[in-house]
Amino acid sequence: MFYKIKKMILGLLAFTALLLVAGCQTSTQQAPKTPQDLTKDQQGTWVWTEQQLTLQKVFLATNVDPRAAAFMIDDLDNVKMTMTIKDKTVELKYRFDYLKIYEDQYKGQNLQTPDFKTYVQKKTEDLKAYVATLQHTKITVDEANYAYDYTLTGTIDPDNHTITFPETPTFLSKIILGPTSNPLEAMTYNYTVEGKQMTLSAEGKNDKGLKLVMRLRFNYTDGKE
Description:
The chain is α+β, with helices and mostly antiparallel strands and 225 residues long.
């Protein structure tokens, strides 16, 4: 009798131990990945931030009418532009609803003619014409919703701390996220990482020969944001 009870107790303990081990394994598998040292390993997804500061520099560099710029300055705040780095590939993506920025541009310039609907249609045609000139950037225009989807693929060189795109990142055709005025030019950014923020910077000259510096900042995300 004692032998049978002892055997049952040992069996129960063994079963309990098995459950504990299985539980630990499941917990380990579901545990979030330990954050890597982002200064040495930039793999993952980064989200564009400081949109207004970037736009101010673009508007100043391109001599946008100050009144129009004041209306337009916050129109990219809600854009979620992501930069995903996997191995040596860098993919820049975003979707932009452009109706509001053209509405603010129209108001900022005190335009009366053409009417706003015609104005937006003309701007949409200009955007489609610009898309046709691109060789590397993929833009799909959603005319019905006054929006477009944007994808540009580049490469990262972690040894030299550079990210290069075959064309310069843009919003629409005029908001060029680089120091030059030609969006069809390849653009190489130097990058630095502090904490969970990456800063891309590039220097160049505009069409007037003036030196300009463009900086873009991205915050690292673990996918929970």
